């Protein structure tokens, strides 16, 4: 059986490192991509500011930040419960989602907008936090759909 307090500590450190990576890349993007873009075919680095949530939805709506806070806390609690139950695949997915949420939440609270800079032709511009949320959601889905293979049960 897994030592859950040490697993929770490890995940806390990993989440903090993921948030730092997100915030660091956003800082670098703001510093080096201001008024210029770097593209190479269908991908590139393009600095944009997003006042809304996913794909700019609900931009300027004051209730977005507190609702996001409640949802983020819910995801964190779900991760801890899944870890405690031994559903490690689900817990890992929730921790990735929480790290991404926290990275973008910091932007919303500090600057009132989220820094996006990763561009893929045909998609919106996104950031490291968005990648974490997406990867976490995929892992949660796999853990729920295929628990014997992706559930990592302890």
UniProtKB/TrEMBL annotation:
Top EC class of this enzyme: hydrolase
Active site feature: 116, 130
Recorded GO CC terms: plasma membrane
Associated pathway: Protein modification; lipoprotein biosynthesis (signal peptide cleavage)
GO biological process terms on file: proteolysis
Catalytic activity: Release of signal peptides from bacterial membrane prolipoproteins. Hydrolyzes -Xaa-Yaa-Zaa-|-(S,diacylglyceryl)Cys-, in which Xaa is hydrophobic (preferably Leu), and Yaa (Ala or Ser) and Zaa (Gly or Ala) have small, neutral side chains
Main localization, broad class: membrane
Membrane-protein topology: Multi-pass membrane protein
Protein name as annotated: Lipoprotein signal peptidase
Species the sequence originates in: Candidatus Cryosericum terrychapinii
Designated gene of the protein: lspA
